[in-house]
Amino acid sequence: MEFHYEKLDHVQLAAPANSEETARQFYRDLLGFKEIEKPDPLRKNGGVWFRCGNVELHIGIEDPFSPAKKAHPAIRVKHLSAMKLYLDEQGYFYTVDKNLPNAERFYLSDPFGNRIEFLEWR
Q1: What is the mean pLDDT of the segment spanning 110-118?
Q2: Are 59 and 49 in contact (CB under 8 A)?
Q3: Domains of the chain by range and CATH?
Q4: Who is most buried in 64, 84, 88, 100, counting CB within 10 A?
Q5: b or e along 3-25 (b: 16 or more beta carbons within 10 Å of the residue's beta carbon)?
């Protein structure tokens, strides 16, 4: 093959119509992502885009909407235990999974029911 993959550019998750402000409250206000501007030709589709470090998430509007309950992005986190403490303090529920050797990880659902994995390798 004459091509090669460089990196994952972004992950898109679905959300119901008119849920952009809810997405902002979760991804920006709770998780600390920065909202980034969508290109003009894509704004008419609704949704909102976020970035934090090298992680970029696009929240796209889907009608009819169906959340990703099994398929999910997995985001590496440094100091995962501090993130869990922060989520505890904010009253957010997550599910710890100890089935991946040499990793600490948990799953969190966004307000739309999409599954997101956060993990730290030991």
Answers
A1: 98
A2: yes
A3: 11-121 (3.10.180.10)
A4: 84
A5: eeeeeeeebebbbbeebeebbbe
